Amino acid sequence: MAAPSDWLARAARARLLAGGRRQAAGLALAALVVAFYRALRAGASKADECGTGGAAVLSPWPDRAPALSHPMMAPRASQLLFLHARLAAALGVPPGVADVGALAAALQDAAATGSDLFEQAAALAAALARRHPFYAANLALAAAAAGLFLRAYDLELQLTVSDAPALRAHLTAGDRAVLAAWLRARTTPRPLE
To answer: Which CATH number fits domain 4-189: 1.10.3290, 3.30.200, 1.10.287, 1.25.40?
Structure first.
């Protein structure tokens, strides 16, 4: 039997071919987060808390991205529910919302924060990690939600398994500025199709 992350990757490709681009993106992110979560469970090396492997991180982004004049396209609750259902199925944890109010509050927290894309993604992830709206996999969903948010702006979050401990530390610490800088350093523009 194929690993759940393999199944998610195949499902993402199938949905993309069928024209379901947004669902395909969610499935692809779910596959990435499943790999991250498994690395954390397996006790991935915590020696490198920055997740850079000792190498300098070159970012294509300035210290602060320009402010945008239009409202942010934050993920809707339905997108987060879909993403969580896929993560829960792949990770073998119980699905479902433990606190609807916490989910709504997390989305409101993210919508009320800054005009920078990375600050907004960090606010969404930190709010989901802090409020624990789901029964399980809240940190995995927080990471996937940040990736989904950035992907809506044609930005690709480039993560490796060695980044998992640092991402977990940033999510649990709740420092949005540090998390935003960390996300900015690991994001590249998606190629035009």
So the answer is: 1.10.3290
Q: What is the Cα gyration radius of the chain?
A: 16
Closest CA to 64 of 139, 114, 111, 138: 114
Give whole-number Cα distances, 125 to 13, 76, 111, 142, in Å: 26, 14, 12, 4
Name the pTM for this structure. 0.67
Say how far apart CA 107 and CA 89 lie, in whole Å.
23
For residues 32-48, b (16+ Cβ closer than 10 Å) or e, as one string? bbbbbbbbbeeebeeee
Query: Sign of dihedral through CA atoms 93, 79, 142, 29?
Result: positive
Paired residues of 156 in beta bridges: 188
97, β-bridge pairs: 134
Structure tokens at 139: 């940190």
Task: State pLDDT tens for residues 16-53.
Answer: 455 555 555 556 666 666 665 565 555 443 333 333 33
**Beta strands 155-157 and 187-189, pairing class:** antiparallel
Structure tokens at 107: 């989305």
For the chain, domain boundaries = 4-189
Name which of 25, 118, 30 is nearest 72 in CA terms. Answer: 118
Using DSSP's 3-state secondary structure scheme, residue 185 falls into helix
